[in-house]
Amino acid sequence: MTDTYMAADLPFPGSPVVPEMSDGSKKIQFQCRKGIACWNACCSNIDISLTPYDILRLKRRFGMDSGEFLKKYTAPYELEPGSIVGVKLRPVESGTACQFMTDGGCSVYGDRPTACRYYPVALLSLRRQGETTDTQSYALVKEEHCLGHNEPRTITINDYRQEQGVEEYDELARGWRQLILKKKSSGPSIGKPTRRSLELFFMACYDLDRFTSFVASEGFSELYDVPADEMQQILRNDTETMLFGFRFLKQVLFGEQTIPLKKEVAEERQQRLREKRLQAESDAAGKLAVEQDDTYDDRAD
Ligand code: SF4
Ligand code: SF4
Known about the structure:
The chain contains eleven helices and nine strands. The protein is mainly α. Helix 5 runs parallel beside helix 10 (about 240-255), helix 6 (about 195-205) packs antiparallel against helix 10 and helix 9 packs across helix 10. Bound molecules: iron/sulfur cluster (SF4) (2 copies). One iron/sulfur cluster binds near residues 43, 106, 108 and 116.
């Protein structure tokens, strides 16, 4: 089963992705049904990236701690070399099949990941240069083993998304997709992220129980000024905690301030910034003076 695609993964020659992007009104011919000759072929050879909401739904289904879930069912991979990390479903030991596949089909069907819901449609989240919002386009994935394309049913991509319950999944993963697109479009101008920020990204996006403990910690409330009732709401509901995580990362990684800092911390930071600026100005003045001295020396020579 092929993954949900992100912006950079445009179709390549030989790829099963049909090289035509469309909006949701495009009709496709497809149906997957029990009894079809290729039953389970897609789940026998998986490459499925998980969104934070996919992880939340599955770990909730199993009543597992996020750390335990990540260890047992997933493997990390680099979304970009040396940069932020994504998480994929880990296949069965020494095989390629999904751990959730059974003869009867998907054993986690009600909570199956976004990529499984979308299949055989690929989602392409794009942000064009100079635009601040991303747009969604779709492409069709036609893999030889999948006979669903021969079934006599046509459906628009929008209706297919609704049928597969994808809208909620997309809505709740939007903040995460925006973070990835921001990181990809910022390129080297923002520089290589520090190990600390990569760890924070992993924790807030995927290891939700650890992030919950972090937000509930004394250290967090010493730094951030979140009203008590808002904090209660964030901690009471894991979906809210996840969404707060995206907000937190936008602030920590990209400086989008939406979580107020405690007054004294904010003052201290401003003071540090002022000192940094003064230091930079004084360094620049010193450099200029040296350059001028060199010019005079050259003339004297
Ligand atoms: S989660 Fe379910 S639908 Fe997705 S690959 Fe595994 S068995 Fe197949
Ligand atoms: S029709 Fe396609 S999606 Fe359905 S079981 Fe067959 S290979 Fe999988």
